[in-house]
């Protein structure tokens, strides 16, 4: 691996000081912000995540805030998911599409009130699309990026840790719901959500100034829980089938291709900009779709580019995320497969950067 | 420095293979794409750039293509620079602003024909803003990112190198103009432009497939010119006063604050979305502005966050790019200074990450 050059453009976060003190070894860049990728090693971080509790600097999940009378209308224009039944205090995973139905982002929408929303974004400048749409359609709404930085608490001991720092009622937060809790006199939204399958929360840290005080409070409170700094873990997220925008999908893909058809209510999501384009896809189904894929042989190299997938010498798909899974003792992978070769049990070949490997399309993700 | 984790999301370029073969040591991420930052060392790369010729993988300067009857109208909506006099074959540096006059990007617009433009972007997803505006205003224009990757040729021997690979008439290309030249039967636009003050060109490589053939042809032809792989050099670009979007300016800043008032024709740029907001700024002038700053002491650390600038204990600005200059034997820096302290010769203090340093506002950049 090469080094990453520091610059202000690759933004630090309210938690960077804590991340550095915990010995971060590698980063990626996500929304022009530093996102840790390795502390001890991907395998050791993975094992710890499955057994204990980790604090994740995911400030790079920037918020796009919509505020004003047209906030709800604008939010529905952005996504084919029907938002009419959504209540305050709910989080919805929402595919965001352009006028052709191409995915621009796959964020979580947080409904604070009828006229105030946060969109907690994946890796693309969704702010620019939303601002452009609001301007062009002359909507009565303010769109900007507030000083709000999510902090992830992930792992089986997450409830225990948060109950100590906030109050016991954090245990009652339901999946993809959030509640308001106080820290040093400030109200923070805490949601039961996060980019792992090990359970946990995301704290929407409102204000850079309380970032490190909260970070330190969590580590002070969790010493006997073996709390550590962590980060989204490549192995665990592939096992769990958590997609990554920019890796497993781009604006070339429709939500249906990404297996997100269940989040598309194309008949009732009136006002969605990409609705017309998606109606046909919704009726006929996609011709390619995301699939879990097990790749044979020993540990694969890092998947730094799409790996073509072949059957009888013909390209039938591509793999875009892959890692060796210690728990399942195979290389777990996410790929986009043509419908002719997407059935579970289909054997194919994957051209990795260190050679061709046998592979099998799986019925389900691993966890 | 920490390591950078490979993933498909941090896109490789058509020239990555060549960059790796030349021993790249560090990267940054720019428009979600890998941009080399160091080959031998920042100082050695700098010296070589000033004496010989380098080939730069700047594919990360992605293009936003506008095509259709409303392309010119849309282009003018994006920028306060008056584009009416612009001819085919010209490149214009164009601040791009939102409805508040905040900078969204500072790209180079390339006019291919009346109804076809490329916008060669700095580090933000300008594509999303342009697509949103085109959609909201119902313009008759196609907006997308084509498979076009700029390759920079920079340094005093640039003309000699390009004349060998293309034809002698590349020497006749004027500054910020481009011409069409053939390589392996394909027409490529070559502009006299680039992100250094050492002279040179940018080749708009149209098609990933000819990336490495062109790269190899340049190295084969330039052996006796001492051609090497290079990259935008932090030291040289600060000496030359070349601003970096995301470092020296963000969407918090107007073009006038960035010293780009000369590119804002607020009275005649009819249709520009941010024009109303900028009219007042243009009349009254900004209250803070970009300035060259010399920082005392030995080599400063990497500027990975804004460094506050103080005078008598009061914050009067910030430094966002800084490096030790071997040629000028001082730390050269770019900062945003309040008007009370922006005059040349003003002495201030800069709080770097390794302590307070004396500094002086300069009259001009160094080269």
Automatic annotation (TrEMBL), chains A, B:
<dbReference type="InterPro" id="IPR027266">
    <property type="entry name" value="TrmE/GcvT-like"/>
</dbReference>
<dbReference type="Pfam" id="PF08669">
    <property type="entry name" value="GCV_T_C"/>
</dbReference>
<feature type="domain" description="GCVT N-terminal">
    <location>
        <begin position="20"/>
        <end position="266"/>
    </location>
</feature>
<dbReference type="InterPro" id="IPR029043">
    <property type="entry name" value="GcvT/YgfZ_C"/>
</dbReference>
<dbReference type="Pfam" id="PF01571">
    <property type="entry name" value="GCV_T"/>
</dbReference>
<dbReference type="InterPro" id="IPR006222">
    <property type="entry name" value="GCVT_N"/>
</dbReference>
<protein>
    <submittedName>
        <fullName>Dimethylsulfoniopropionate demethylase</fullName>
    </submittedName>
</protein>
<dbReference type="InterPro" id="IPR013977">
    <property type="entry name" value="GcvT_C"/>
</dbReference>
<dbReference type="InterPro" id="IPR028896">
    <property type="entry name" value="GcvT/YgfZ/DmdA"/>
</dbReference>
<feature type="domain" description="Aminomethyltransferase C-terminal">
    <location>
        <begin position="307"/>
        <end position="364"/>
    </location>
</feature>
